[in-house]
Amino acid sequence: MKILLVEDDPIIQEGLKLALTSEGCGFAAASSVAEAKALLGGEYDICILDVMLPDGTGYDVCAEIRRKGDTPVIFLTACDDELHTVLALENGADDYIAKPFRMRELMARIKAVLRRMGRKTDSEEPVKVGSNDVNVRTGKVFRDGSEVILTAMEYKLLLIFINNRGAVLSRQQLLHNIWDVAGDYVTDNTLTVYVKRLREKLENGDEVIQTVRGLGYRLI
């Protein structure tokens, strides 16, 4: 699932990025109306728009989305009163959710909107990674019919690579997007161990995660 996220609060945006990645979603993110409109050339399954933005409102972005097609839109609103609800729906929203919200509730609303529009909520086809089949919906990896057992952190790292396939990810980018189960940020040395273990589990005579010397790693 590919999501366009438009949110100017850096803390909320980063939290949503991490949560969406852990759910197996790909995304593009913007912090303003101008940035969002520049990203509208891409194809998205759904758009999540904050109402109040530095250079306008999410309604401005929604109008442009509606001009281009029928991509579903969910508004993030700071107020859960009747006026804001009506404004969101009258300005083209398929649904809205008031801040603060729980990530599980947001994901449920995303899936409900997609179901109502007759769209798939999850990829039915596994993602091929080397000789492995990654089922993003179930969070399981298989090779030749046998499950490849990954730890939570290894799987989270794999999802980051999948959502950025072909792009070179620096060690700093990877460190910024993963943390261990205790909530502490992963160290540079620990990242090396995770990448090594992921390679050992996924590679079967074929290169899966390529080291780009001096730059970082790339999933091929």
From TrEMBL:
<dbReference type="GO" id="GO:0000976">
    <property type="term" value="F:transcription cis-regulatory region binding"/>
</dbReference>
<keyword id="KW-0805">Transcription regulation</keyword>
<dbReference type="GO" id="GO:0000156">
    <property type="term" value="F:phosphorelay response regulator activity"/>
</dbReference>
<dbReference type="InterPro" id="IPR036388">
    <property type="entry name" value="WH-like_DNA-bd_sf"/>
</dbReference>
<dbReference type="Pfam" id="PF00072">
    <property type="entry name" value="Response_reg"/>
</dbReference>
<protein>
    <recommendedName>
        <fullName>Stage 0 sporulation protein A homolog</fullName>
    </recommendedName>
</protein>
<dbReference type="GO" id="GO:0005829">
    <property type="term" value="C:cytosol"/>
</dbReference>
<feature type="domain" description="Response regulatory">
    <location>
        <begin position="2"/>
        <end position="114"/>
    </location>
</feature>
<dbReference type="InterPro" id="IPR039420">
    <property type="entry name" value="WalR-like"/>
</dbReference>
<dbReference type="GO" id="GO:0006355">
    <property type="term" value="P:regulation of DNA-templated transcription"/>
</dbReference>
<dbReference type="InterPro" id="IPR016032">
    <property type="entry name" value="Sig_transdc_resp-reg_C-effctor"/>
</dbReference>
<dbReference type="InterPro" id="IPR001867">
    <property type="entry name" value="OmpR/PhoB-type_DNA-bd"/>
</dbReference>
<feature type="domain" description="OmpR/PhoB-type">
    <location>
        <begin position="124"/>
        <end position="220"/>
    </location>
</feature>
<dbReference type="Pfam" id="PF00486">
    <property type="entry name" value="Trans_reg_C"/>
</dbReference>
<keyword id="KW-0804">Transcription</keyword>
<keyword id="KW-0597">Phosphoprotein</keyword>
<comment type="function">
    <text>May play the central regulatory role in sporulation. It may be an element of the effector pathway responsible for the activation of sporulation genes in response to nutritional stress. Spo0A may act in concert with spo0H (a sigma factor) to control the expression of some genes that are critical to the sporulation process.</text>
</comment>
<feature type="DNA-binding region" description="OmpR/PhoB-type">
    <location>
        <begin position="124"/>
        <end position="220"/>
    </location>
</feature>
<feature type="modified residue" description="4-aspartylphosphate">
    <location>
        <position position="50"/>
    </location>
</feature>
<dbReference type="InterPro" id="IPR011006">
    <property type="entry name" value="CheY-like_superfamily"/>
</dbReference>
<dbReference type="GO" id="GO:0032993">
    <property type="term" value="C:protein-DNA complex"/>
</dbReference>
<dbReference type="InterPro" id="IPR001789">
    <property type="entry name" value="Sig_transdc_resp-reg_receiver"/>
</dbReference>
<keyword id="KW-0238">DNA-binding</keyword>
